[in-house]
Amino acid sequence: MPEATSSAKGAAVEVIMDSNALFAPLQFKIDIQGELERLLGRRFELILLSSVRHELEVLAAGSPPKTSKMAAFALEYAKKCRLVEAHSSAKTVDDAIVEIAAKCRSPVFTNDAQLRRRLRNISVPVIYVRQKSHLAIEGMIQSHV
User: Fold this and answer.
1) Helix and strand tally (H, E) in the chain?
2) What are the boundaries of each domain within the chain?
3) Residue 40, number of CB atoms within 10 A of its CB
4) What is the rounded CA–CA span in Å between residue 51 and residue 80?
5) Strand, coil or helix: 85
6) Which segments of 4-145 does DSSP mark as H helices, in order?
7) For position 2, what pLDDT does the model report?
8) Three-state SS for 87?
9) Nearest to 116 by CA among 139, 134, 100, 132
């Protein structure tokens, strides 16, 4: 991923979005942008891996109506993210997220317990929904300055 630009508050934090994180605004009525500003206290950029976008497209096209509607909403929300082509040998979307997050040392926003555990095991910070009302973070975000 390209280096983030600097500002008065330091370099922007690149936050990799998992598909289920993009469901949070609809599912929990959480203002993701506002919560990330509160949580991180600095500029950030939402990153959407191409494999995550593909996963959402598949869900939007071939899932039961409720899941399809949520995936369509997530795809619309994903337009706020910078799309990054995931050039990875990973077999699954989660594997690609782990591989890229480990390489870039970027925090990942996910509510998937298994993915959270995998990321924490390799010391990648994880942002998640806590108590269905706000975002929390596990781990420390390193400065890329």
Assistant:
1) 6, 6
2) 13-138
3) 18
4) 16
5) coil
6) 24-28, 32-40, 50-62, 65-77, 93-104, 113-121
7) 40
8) coil
9) 139
Average pLDDT, the chain: 90
Write out the two tokens for 69.
């509607």
88 neighbors 43 (Cβ within 8 angstroms): no
Smallest CA-to-CA distance from 52 within 114, 99, 105, 120 is with 99
- CATH match of 13-138 with 3.40.50.1010: yes
Q: 135 is written with which tokens?
A: 């975002």
Q: What confidence tens digit (pLDDT) does each residue in 121-133 have?
A: 999 999 999 999 9
Angle value at C-alpha 140, between 138 and 145, nearest 5 degrees = 145
At residue 45, does pLDDT exceed 80? yes
As a whole number of angstroms, the distance between CA 119 and CA 8 comes to: 29
Residue 69: what pLDDT?
94
| Rounded Cα gap, residues 135 and 130, in angstroms | 6
Q: How many CA atoms lie within 13 A of 75 on its CB side?
A: 17
**Residue with tokens 């555990």, as numbered in its chain:** 117
